[in-house]
Specification:
With 161 residues, this protein is of the alpha/beta class. It has a single domain (19-157), classed as 3-Layer(aba) Sandwich (Glutaredoxin). It contains five helices and nine strands. It has helices at 49-60, 62-65, 79-88, 102-106, 149-157; strands spanning 19-21, 27-29, 38-43, 70-75, 95-97, 110-113, 118-121, 124-128, 134-139. The strands form three sheets. A five-stranded mixed beta sheet has the order 5-4-3-8-9. It has a two-stranded antiparallel ribbon with strand order 1-2. The protein is globular, with a radius of gyration of 14 Å. The N and C termini lie far apart (31 Å).
Length: 161
């Protein structure tokens, strides 16, 4: 696995605030999660098999994750596309459409993919602590490159009061 150390927010950096409307119509923002750790997962798309596997891992390990942090996943797709996916694959955490890739760009994980100019997120995982500071950042170098989920849990455990 190759982590792209030059991409994404750096450890100790304040996470930029953001606001997105979820596929459920609710408003989500970094401010909403202030005072508690937040696990942010940036996905290439609901069409990506590795992204689906990563979401399933979080869902299957929800009993370990939920007591440690809130979780959001972001994807550069439209709300209808995300809603369609969630109707067939419900998740216990919000999957937030970022169709203009605004948050994806803010967090430094935006990439131009292939010659047709299709734009997606690098597969990335970040942990934001209760004070809004990045304590963990993993930016994958390929569609297959994801952090070991046990490592993510270990990083979340460090934030327990």
């Amino acid at each position: 696995m190759t982590t792209l150390l030059d991409k994404g927010l750096k450890l100790g950096e304040a996470a930029p605030d953001w606001q997105l409307t979820g596929a459920d119509g609710n408003s989500y923002s970094l401010d909403r999660y202030q005072g508690q750790p937040l696990l942010m997962i940036f996905l290439r798309g609901t069409w990506c098999p590795n992204c689906r596997k990563q979401m399933e891992t979080v869902r299957n390990d929800w009993a370990r994750v939920a007591p440690l942090a809130k979780v959001v996943a972001l994807v550069g797709q439209s709300a209808p596309e995300v809603s369609d996916y969630l109707s067939r694959n419900p998740m216990p955490f919000p999957l937030l459409p970022d169709p203009n890739r605004e948050v994806i760009k803010q967090y430094g994980v935006y990439q131009r993919f292939s010659l047709d100019g299709f734009r997606i997120a690098y597969p990335s995982t970040m942990i934001i602590d209760r004070h809004g500071v990045v304590t963990y950042s993993y930016v994958g170098g390929s569609q297959f490159d994801r952090p070991d989920f046990n490592q993510v849990i270990a990083e979340l455990e460090k934030l327990k009061p």
